[in-house]
Amino acid sequence: MNATPTPDRHVPVLIVGGGGSGLTASLALSDLGVDTLLIERHPTTSVQPKAHILNARTMEIFDHLGVAEDIHREGSPAENRAAMVWLSSLGGDAPYDRQVLHRTSAYGGGELAERYALASAQPHANLGQRWLEPLLRRHAEKRAPGGLLFHHELTALDEDPDGVTATVLDRGSGQTFTVRAAYVVAADGGKTIGRLRSIPMEGTPTFLEWINLHVRADFSAFIPCDDAVVNRVSSLSEDGTLQHCGVVPMGPDRWGRHSEEWTLMFSRPPGAADLDDDTIVAMVRRTLKLPDDHPMDVESISRWPVEGTVARRFRSGRVFLVGDAAHRHPPSGALGLNTGVQDSHNLAWKLALVLGGSADDALLDTYESERRPVARRVVERALFSLFNQIAFTAGTGVVQGAHPDWNRAQMTALFSDTPDGETRRAVLREYFDTNRITTAHLGLEMGYDYADAGSVTSDGTPRPPQDPLGLEYEQTARPGSRLPHAWLTEDGTRTGTHRLHRAPGSFLLLAGAEGTAWVEAARLLSRRYGVRI
Predict the structure, then answer these.
(1) Domain assignments of the chain as residue spans, ordered by start
(2) What kind and span of H or E run contains 194?
(3) Which InterPro entries match (predicted)?
(4) What is the pLDDT of residues 66-120, one digit of tens each?
(5) What is the pLDDT of residues 17-33, one digit of tens each?
(6) What SS3 state is found at 426?
(7) Which CATH superfamily groups domain 9-76+124-203+308-384?
(8) Confidence (pTM)
């Protein structure tokens, strides 16, 4: 049937993709006074819990966008997002079953809270995308009424010197229409635009299949710690091998060990996605050693290929890649969604200045020069974090391929109440401590800078020492770095430096008592170029 085109739409920016990155772009551009149209091929926001940890830098951005308080309100309380815990199983009756292998503070919680609080006024948050995305969508629709179209798919994209013409399919009605835009933000996870623009992904191609189960269950009798934002089970199977499964509380009303909903996640070599659902559920139950009669309702099962890749280009003419369209990696370290949100934030203000006539199009080139190195570092860290977890197996004494009796003896000795058991547990802690690169990487989250991106002017000061592990973060006002956090007090009211910079589309000048010359220079620039300072 030939579709009857509807009238064309004209917008400065077309956003393709309605996940976390696309919705952030919509919010940010709306706040900057830029009209947008967002299209998303699915009928709704994500039905899967997906990513859930939102780091402090991301929450600073969400605070600027006026959604941070809602996220904290809907997300888990601080006491339920403070640690990562490794367990030997949930059930089972062997001497090594239902043991805590390791417990550590994680993602700015627990013992890390004080160090993280020195770096940011915003604590990290914990809210799965199944709940985060509808929250962002509600705010975006209020700011751009009629500007978000779900169940609409991009089918073609043509660029000329003056703009971009997109062909959009309404998947509900079957009709197509065209959208004319000055620029396109590709937040589609690489589903369409990267292919249409022939932008290759570079790095490590698919090497694992990740399988997530979204379940409803009461695991409170099996999980000992109420503050774990992530539980990781490494259980010794009947054949003597260690099998691994993440057990992640997802709330949404009760949290911690009393959560009603969970994500269970494990990986397999490529091709495992061919496993049918019943086989997957049986595998997970065996790994967790759940009693046969314990109820667990499976809401959905998703499978996705794991890779470690970065797009060769983040800009192709008038098209910009953000989020998974630009970089893809394992979930280790909770870096994916956070990096995508930060991509959109970086791009939005530049688009607004160019569209408003206050900056040349060349400013948009700095999006790639600033964000692509960050993406490469994030991908490298996520890959290394995943591979580093293999070391934990060696710490237990279990040897893959050894006789099952040997491995059972190693696990039994590990938890024995003997000097040998105490020594083994001390050695195991040394192995697990290397996981700090996954759960305590404040330097990685906050410490990136754009000094080498060609977008800032150096002040001649040296770069602060860089921690190769990405754990330590030294705040600096050096050009290209994140604005340092500090508390300022006026008339008894305390305000963080990042709260000073909330006016959309403006720049912030911080000057001391002797900064009159700086203030006058800023006023001159503001008048000359029409930029708010």
Answers:
(1) 9-76+124-203+308-384, 78-114+204-306+392-439, 459-529
(2) helix 193-196
(3) FAD-bd, FAD/NAD-bd_sf, RIFMO-like
(4) 999 999 999 999 999 999 999 999 999 999 999 999 999 999 999 999 999 999 9
(5) 999 999 999 999 999 99
(6) helix
(7) FAD/NAD(P)-binding domain (3.50.50.60)
(8) 0.95
